[in-house]
Design goal:
Helix content: 10-25%
Radius of gyration: 33 Å
Bound molecules: S-adenosylmethionine
Number of helices: 19
Strand order of the largest sheet: 1-2-3-4-7-8-9-12
Number of strands: 35
Shape: elongated
Strand content: 15-25%
Largest sheet: 8 strands, parallel, barrel
Length: about 850
């Protein structure tokens, strides 16, 4: 696989240096050395060991005078005692090395890791909160823009995750205190209790026994989603604050892809790697496993490219002496790589003082190339766009230009038209043209790319066509006229009209078959403009070749092949069904073909915290924001219902030493699991079931275009459902298909860029339990004037029943292909559980959302 091409420079890596025990003041000179060493930033603790000792001293003297808390008559402990609070005095000059200076913008401040905001002992939790707020206030004063906040401690004896809510509450205060600071909560990818060890001087072990619960001797197990759970609680408490971000610590052994993809959907703005993440290559240099490289590559494609922090990988060259002078032994000596002083004495010639950094810089050069849609959509990842209203709003030329860049769509249309023409001719079907030409109409021709393709298809198939192009956008129509003159040789009859009021193509009847339709005074297209090319440009059989006497016997005929491209991100959301209904009567009733022949809408539930936060922010000025389906290039999302195997099974496999990679090996970005994307509904054309227009109405009723569906999605892992990701598939003709569905796109129309997915938001995220089920009810509604969607999500937990059942009730499906994976997956669960039965318990339910206010006008 190629690396980034020169026209696609790829993401630039910003790499920082973190030293757990850095204890030197940071000044401009130090920052200079940081840059000289090829780092972009460094971390600095806000306070000094002096402050730490002072707080420990305060606590110890306070505790020595404090009576141990007892239960009061009401049964609460400590909370109602009138105890004198312990107040940490303001920082003194020995408590911090930080001073506001020009270096401040290059540093990431680090909050003390010895505090325990989650402590079950209120005294320790409060002391920790005070330390946090003092440090945040001082960092804000100094102008620090980024803070690294050690994540919540999840285990306290027999208590697990109890204090996270205190932590979250304290972070909320901190966010308000530092209004220009971005807070990065430093989290492990999984909750591994064995890694949560207290070190000397930590406040956690000082929690008083009365507040602890003895553990029951059963060591807590690894919880794959334990740290994500804590994060979810914190950010929910802080209302998805845009300055609340994740610093994700990459472990030596990466967790399963389900966990990786969850973090990929979160606002990870820092990736931290310590020396234990690295393997050694044959030459003894640090390298990362393929799995680590793949995950980094995936993360680096996010809209906001995370920074990398190399932690405890050795000193910054030139600063080693300063650190040693402070009595800090470089932790590198423990990492197995030579220290600077060791190397100074060695005879090795090409010594690299920062091998981890060199590796990361090299990794940047080797990033896999972006896919066409990624390249096309740079800057649009996770950016909410209101869907187009092409019926009521005329598109700008630039919008057409963007469509026309698609390397697949037009090619596939040409293939479809060619096939249809060849079939027509091979099957010797009669045409609607007296001369035997196949009458083709491109309806909604835009600037004409499909017209060009139809002409090419005719040539390719060797089948003569009478080509019509209908477009309602008067501005685009100017370009169609120009193309007809300069490129198409006047071969196309152009009609400026809404296709729904077009009366159809007109042809000169063969002798003896004329009907009474005369042209001259009327063009037969009320309110429309039929473009007349210069005399002689058209072939003689064309309706548009009228010039007085020799064009007296024109009559309407049918269209044999209608070509349209009116699809939106959710197939029918730009009213393709309603537009094509309007010309249904013009299609050859026996052999007529529509390209596309059919299209279907698909969706799957997703976790999308960034989109949720953006929708919430928009709600302030627009209450309809959470009721709007958005077009979005989805990136930072996690599929809540997926199969266990990734789309590309080679990528993302677990790291082992022999899968480590040297500098030359190509990298694949991790592919996460294949989602369960299910079909909501479909439409096909021509449609034999359109009701007749009642005499009392000027339009046909639209109730036949109403759809509804109820689909069930098994969710293997717990998560938060923020909305639904929607896609479409379409059969253009025969086996020529287009798809944006991530499951079928690769096979049907890889590299197509014309459509981003659609996102149906939920006002309030719904929590989904492990082995839960998400059931979505969705409608396509109409009042004959506009079309809108309604959607609602329910979440179920599966509760084992005592009575054994073999068949489990699945929700009713209607209006859709009921290829629900739920029944199948649950059968597997039942088998796993020895045929034990389950009962569904509803644990959450969204509002019934409706886009009626922003409905698409017909
Ligand atoms: C998505 S664009 C496709 C343009 C072009 N066929 C292409 O593939 O690049 C849809 C076009 O259909 C036109 N359109 C939509 N509804 C229409 C209608 N009812 N009658 C005529 N044109 C319509 C729009 O103005 C727009 O030019």
């Amino acid at each position: 696989m190629d690396n980034y091409a020169s026209d696609d420079p790829g993401p630039s890596f910003l790499v920082g240096h973190h030293e757990s025990n850095r204890a030197v003041p940071v000044d401009a000179d130090m920052i200079f050395k940081v840059h000289e060493a090829n780092y972009d930033m460094l971390t600095v603790p806000i306070t000094t060991p002096h402050f730490h000792s002072r707080v420990l001293g305060l606590l110890s003297s306070y505790l020595s005078k404090l009576q141990s808390p007892t239960y009061d008559p009401i049964g609460t402990m400590g909370t109602s005692q009138n105890t004198r609070p312990l107040v940490v005095p303001a920082l003194s000059k020995q408590d911090t090395h930080l001073t506001p200076n020009e270096a401040t913008s290059q540093i990431v401040g680090v909050i003390s890791s010895w505090i325990d905001l989650c402590s079950p002992d209120p005294l320790i939790a409060d002391l920790s909160r005070q330390v946090l707020l003092l440090e945040v206030a001082y960092a804000a004063f100094c102008g620090i823009g980024y803070l690294l906040v050690p994540g919540p401690k999840l285990h306290h004896g027999g208590l697990h995750s109890e204090g996270v809510v205190y932590y979250a509450r304290a972070i909320q205060d901190a966010i308000n205190l530092g209004p220009y600071i971005q807070f990065h909560i430093w989290l492990r990818m999984t909750d591994n209790p064995e890694l949560e060890v207290d070190t000397m001087g930590d406040l956690a072990p000082l929690a008083r026994e009365e507040y602890l619960q003895p553990d029951e001797g059963i060591p807590p197990k690894l919880d794959l989603f334990g740290t994500w759970d804590a994060w979810d609680l914190i950010r929910k408490t802080c209302r998805y604050h845009t300055r609340l971000l994740v610093a994700l610590s990459m472990p030596k052994q990466l967790p399963p892809l389900t966990v990786q993809s969850r973090w990929h959907s979160e606002p990870v703005h820092l990736l931290t790697l310590d020396s234990s993440c690295f393997l050694k290559n044959q030459k003894g240099y640090p390298v990362l496993s393929k799995a680590h490289q793949a995950l980094i590559a995936k993360m680096m494609r996010l809209r906001t490219v995370p920074w990398i922090l190399l932690c405890d990988v050795g000193p910054i060259p030139g600063l080693e002496d300063m650190e040693d002078a402070e009595g800090n032994k470089s932790p590198l000596s423990g990492s197995g790589y030579p220290s600077l002083s060791q190397v100074a004495g060695s005879t090795k010639k090409h010594f690299d003082p920062t091998p981890h950094l060199s590796y990361i810089r090299n990794l940047q050069q080797r990033q896999p190339p972006r896919t066409p849609i990624e390249r096309f959509g740079v800057g649009y990842q996770d950016y909410l766009q209101a869907p187009l209203q092409p019926l009521t709003v005329n598109l700008e030329s630039i919008t057409y230009e963007v469509f026309e860049k698609d390397p697949i769509k037009y090619e596939w249309y040409e293939r479809a038209i060619t096939k249809a023409l060849k079939d027509w001719s091979e099957q010797k079907k009669p045409t609607s043209h007296p001369d035997g030409k196949v009458v083709v109409a491109v309806v909604g021709a835009g600037r004409g790319p499909l017209v060009t393709r139809a002409l090419k298809a005719s040539e390719e198939a060797g089948v003569e066509i009478d080509l019509w192009a209908v477009e309602k956008n008067q501005n685009a129509f100017v370009l169609l006229q120009r193309h007809n003159e300069t490129t198409w040789g006047g071969k196309v009859t152009l009609v400026q009209s809404d296709m729904r009021s077009w009366k159809g193509p007109r042809v000169r009847q063969a002798a003896g078959t004329e009907n009474q339709d005369h042209i001259g005074e009327s063009l037969g297209i009320e309110d429309n403009l039929l473009y007349t090319p210069k005399k002689g440009e058209n072939d003689p059989g064309r309706a548009s070749d009228f010039s007085g006497q020799n064009t007296t016997s024109l009559s309407y005929t049918h269209v044999d092949i209608v070509v349209s491209e009116l699809l939106g991100s959710f197939a029918d959301n730009e009213l393709s069904p309603e537009c094509l209904d309007g010309i249904n009567h013009l299609i050859n009733p026996v052999h007529g073909i529509s390209i596309p022949a059919s299209y279907s809408a698909h969706f799957t539930p997703v976790s999308a915290p960034k989109l949720h936060s953006d929708v919430m922010n928009q709600t302030v000025s627009n209450p309809a924001a959470p009721e709007t389906p958005y077009v979005v290039m989805l990136h930072a999302i996690d599929f809540l219902s997926s199969q266990e195997t990734p789309i590309n099974p080679d990528a993302g496999s677990q790291n082992t030493a022999n899968r480590s990679s040297g500098s030359a090996a190509p990298i694949n970005a991790t592919e996460f699991q294949t989602p369960f994307v299910q079909t909501a509904w479909s439409f096909s054309h021509p449609n034999p079931n359109i009701p007749d227009q009642p005499p009392s109405r000027s339009t046909i009723p639209n109730s036949h275009n109403v759809r509804q569906t109820r689909l069930s999605f098994p969710a293997q892992n717990r998560g938060a459902c923020h909305g639904l990701a929607g896609y479409f598939e379409t059969v253009l003709y025969g086996d020529v298909e287009l798809s944006t569905n991530p499951v079928t796109m690769e096979e049907k129309s890889a590299s197509m860029i014309s459509w981003f997915p659609i996102y149906f938001p939920l006002k309030t995220p719904l929590n989904v339990p492990d082995n839960g089920e998400i059931v979505v009810t969705m409608y396509r509604q109409t009042d004959d004037r506009k079309v809108w969607y309604e959607w609602m999500v329910e979440v179920f937990a599966l509760e084992r029943t005592s009575v054994s059942v073999t068949k489990r009730a699945t929700p009713a499906m209607s209006g859709a292909q009921s290829n629900s994976y739920s029944a199948e997956s649950l059968k597997i669960k039942e088998n796993d559980q020895g045929r034990a039965g389950y009962r569904r318990v509803r644990v959450g339910m969204s509002d019934l959302h409706s886009s009626i206010k922003d409905g698409c006008l017909m």
